[in-house]
Amino acid sequence: MTSSELRERFAASIMPNYGVPPVALTLGRGCEVYDADGRQYLDLIAGIAVSSLGHGHPALVKAVAHQAATLAHTSNLFVHEREVQLAERLVGLLGGDAKVFFANSGTEANEAALKLVKRAAGSGRHYFVAADKGFHGRSAGSLALTGKESIREPFGPFGMDVRFVPHGDLEALTEAVDENCVAVFVEPTQGEAGVVPAPEGYLAGVRALCDETGAAFVLDEIQSGIGRTGQWFAHQEEGVRPDVLTLAKGLGGGLPIGACVGFGRYADAFHKGDHGSTFGGNPVACAAALAVIDTIESEGLLAHTSVMGDLLAEQIEGVKHPLLAGQRGSGLWRALELTGPHAAHVQEQAAVRGFLVNAVAPDAIRIAPPLVITPEQIGVFIEALPTVLDAAEAAATKEHQS
Ligand SMILES: Cc1ncc(COP(=O)(O)O)c(C=O)c1O
């Protein structure tokens, strides 16, 4: 089966919401993946910040295979050890005084957070505050909180009063939040907006405002959590703790899992029967997440991520090209800032030369490789980057002329 045949079958059988992705993948090994025609790529996007251990990591393979062969599914009618172990591990990494609800994806983790804060707020509070251009998922509640108008508006109204403020603007947030606010939903760095960090001190400001007004502080670390920034969690950098934390993506290293963590009084805010999921906390997904956490620890991947992230940033800064304005982000979660809306061409030309990157915004390329990427692999990409940018520039010029 060739890539083009597979893409044709995709178009004929899969709904058109994703369009037809340009590359058809069949195999992954470490940071390398192969398409259906046998072409090799350096994976610099890791399934959108998911495959943190790379592809086919023996620890993940062993944990998943063993669990699938032992007990693949229980539902929430039964207790099983992997789920309890994983919750304990997460609570340990977060410093205690917390409990976890497991879901299957990011959007479901945020739906759980939404219900949790509503339950904890009681009846007086009636509105939410979230950030312009923010992204919290595609299901109705998460979408209502999503600041990207183009993807939210066609599906509203949602029956929720959500007020949007500019990302990272503490003054605007202070204006918007009072004692009638249920919760503030924040990303530490906006991933889908183009890896846009909040200014230093912003999370501490959100914490103080929520303490003052009694609104819940919900931190969406679905993209930033589990090592991506070189810390277990991005909020640990600022030494603040939210009331509710949501996780997914890198947690399962490629297996679908999400988590909603409640701290303090939010740990026990749900009543029995308030929420549930047939697959949430599935043993195979939990075994994968345990393997991810163990491997990040045993292979020193937090420190490695910081070092590789700094190296990547430094080397990008060293590339001088008219299309490249600079870079932003932290750890192995970066955006190439382009001087114009050339991201689609850069993504395409990178793939032609064997690099998978993501045109996350018209003028930004997201780079979020597996956390196991090596200096040599970063070097290969940086060496090719000027050629990729030249080709993107030529393609843009050609498009403009035609
Ligand atoms: C910050 C953030 N929240 C929520 C989500 C939704 O996650 P999922 O696609 O797993 O539903 C995403 C996905 O990109 C995300 O980046």
Automatic annotation (TrEMBL):
Pathway involvement of the protein, from the record: Amino-acid biosynthesis; L-arginine biosynthesis; N(2)-acetyl-L-ornithine from L-glutamate: step 4/4
Keyword Transferase: yes
GO biological process: L-arginine biosynthetic process
PROSITE patterns for this protein: AA_TRANSFER_CLASS_3
Binding site for pyridoxal 5'-phosphate: 106-107, 135, 220-223, 278
Enzyme class: transferase
Localization in the cell: Cytoplasm
EC number: 2.6.1.11
Keyword annotations from UniProtKB, A to Z: Amino-acid biosynthesis, Aminotransferase, Arginine biosynthesis, Cytoplasm, Pyridoxal phosphate, Transferase
One Pfam family it belongs to: Aminotran_3
One of the record's GO cellular component terms: cytoplasm
Cofactor note: Binds 1 pyridoxal phosphate per subunit.
Positions bound to N(2)-acetyl-L-ornithine: 138, 277
InterPro entries in the cross-refs: AcOrn/SuccOrn_fam, Aminotrans_3, Aminotrans_3_PPA_site, Class-III_PLP-dep_AT, PyrdxlP-dep_Trfase, PyrdxlP-dep_Trfase_major, PyrdxlP-dep_Trfase_small
Reaction(s) this enzyme catalyzes, per UniProt: N(2)-acetyl-L-ornithine + 2-oxoglutarate = N-acetyl-L-glutamate 5-semialdehyde + L-glutamate
Listed Gene3D superfamilies: Aspartate Aminotransferase, domain 1 (3.90.1150.10), Type I PLP-dependent aspartate aminotransferase-like (Major domain) (3.40.640.10)
Note: May also have succinyldiaminopimelate aminotransferase activity, thus carrying out the corresponding step in lysine biosynthesis.
Quaternary structure (record): Homodimer.
HAMAP family listed in its UniProt record: ArgD_aminotrans_3
Membership in a protein family: Belongs to the class-III pyridoxal-phosphate-dependent aminotransferase family. ArgD subfamily.
Name this polypeptide is given: Acetylornithine aminotransferase
